[in-house]
Amino acid sequence: MISHSTSMGRHYRPTHLSLGMSLFCPRFPSALLNKDLLRYCLKIKGLPFHTEWINISAVPRFGSDIGVEKTNIGGQGIKAYTLPIIHDPSTGTTIAESFKIAQYLDKTYPDTPRIVPTGTESLHTAFRTAVSALESPIYAFAIPKTFELLSEPADREYFRNTRESFFGTTLEELTPTGDAATITWAKVKEAFSTYASWYEGGGKYFAGESPCFADVVLTGKVFWIRNTLGKESTQWEDVRKWDDGKWEKLLADFEQTYN
Amino acid sequence: MISHSTSMGRHYRPTHLSLGMSLFCPRFPSALLNKDLLRYCLKIKGLPFHTEWINISAVPRFGSDIGVEKTNIGGQGIKAYTLPIIHDPSTGTTIAESFKIAQYLDKTYPDTPRIVPTGTESLHTAFRTAVSALESPIYAFAIPKTFELLSEPADREYFRNTRESFFGTTLEELTPTGDAATITWAKVKEAFSTYASWYEGGGKYFAGESPCFADVVLTGKVFWIRNTLGKESTQWEDVRKWDDGKWEKLLADFEQTYN
Q: Chain B within 8 Å of A200 (Cβ-Cβ)?
């Protein structure tokens, strides 16, 4: 299933030149936080691209073959190859990590709408710290559920090993049950309530009338919850009602405008 | 010592009309987080003002008399009168809470440098969440030390009562000792290391070449630590060395440019 690794390497040439950039995403939907948000960034900027789907167990070899830098994981000095990765044939650049990619796109295509408005790099970095500090309760639900959605044995093994090592617990222990599930889900609600409290200034989006990286991150999180836990889940029914329907509305708005 | 309450009330008229706005600050230096930062905001904007010092035990009566809104404290739905308060005689406006005051000043004086650049209100709100999430270890050192600096019995009683109620512990229990002090101080260092990691984009300040609210908040925190723990303290000696001297340099820069 490592469909790209044979033709990759540092001399990678995309097969769909007419479609512009190659965006490499994990093959299973919403496997990892923030991985679909690059699609939004590219659509907002109106840049042509095509998506290539990579099995997650193939990511270490793929990252090494395509010659991208490893990404810092979780602030503990751990580095690993991660998706999304973007390859831009017009500059020959290959980059991993969503914020770095967004900044690259802003710099390289200055005539397109900015994802990280000028002067907001540092504020966006603080924003990401604030989001991360609140998101661990979401992991407790979405990570084990993601494992259930994987079918390839190699992917299941890779996912279990990397996540159990990162969280320092088995996937089964990570999953809250009974009262713990109720308490942890209440923390997810609280996290979203804090996220909602940040929207100031009266615009539709974080910075006014057009979406910026912060909007993309939060929308990506809602997308991830809906697709991982499922449209029919009681949890998604909850999320739809939170914060006066803000999250469902934001996601619907993005899907309508940028899909 | 409630020197202003007799002449205050909703019909407050400042005594120093020629000096522009009245900025009301707590009488003892650096008593509370973020309370001196309004001075920086007013200096950055070049707006004339004078400072009036209020004993903290007089704040509830002062706030009520001057007719300002109460401020949300700690996100638990608790409201109280807090300093700084600003009174602007040119519009008859009286406001409490540093971020609201900064936004008021930007709106009312559009020809002065913006403290909250257009489109960054939401990002600044997220920034404040991120800062707060990391600052409780600082409280453990600075709050008990602040108590030591108070001399008026009424102020000491007010400070003890309000802080012990807020933290749910006595000031003595709040103060870390022995190994706990070492561990808690390491967390203060970690908090500043995270704050330092936010500076992106290569400018001197958060948003480039001129300071914004985020810079003012972080500089205010350094100012508060230095003045509360003391220039001669071992802690200040530590802070000076952290993050390649960033914090001492930032504070020195602010004090040189805006004092």
A: yes
Tell which of A103, A122, A187, A246 to mutate to test the B interface (max B CBs under 10 Å): A122
Topology of the domain comprising B121-258: Glutathione S-transferase Yfyf (Class Pi); Chain A, domain 2 (1.20.1050)
B17-108 CATH pick, 3.40.50.920, 3.40.50.2300, 3.40.50.10860, 3.40.30.10: 3.40.30.10
> Could you list the mean pLDDT of each consecutive 10-residue stretch along chain B, which spans 259 residues?
38 54 72 65 92 89 93 80 91 93 96 94 95 91 89 92 90 93 96 92 79 93 89 95 94 87
Q: Does residue B193 sit at the A interface (CB-CB below 8 Å)? A: no
Start-to-end Cα distance in chain B:
27
Contact of B2 with B55, CB cutoff 8 Å: yes
Residue with tokens 């936010």: B198
Which member of B123, B131, B194 has the closest CB to residue A120?
B123
Residue A122: how many other CB atoms lie within 10 Å: 23
Taking CA atoms, what residue in B is nearest to A211? B119
How close does chain B come to A258, measured CA to CA in Å?
21
Nearest CB among A123, A130, A206 relative to B206 is that of: A123
Determine the Cα–Cα distance for residues A144 and A167; give it in Å rounded to an integer.
12
Q: Would the pTM of this model clear 0.90, i.e. be above it?
A: no
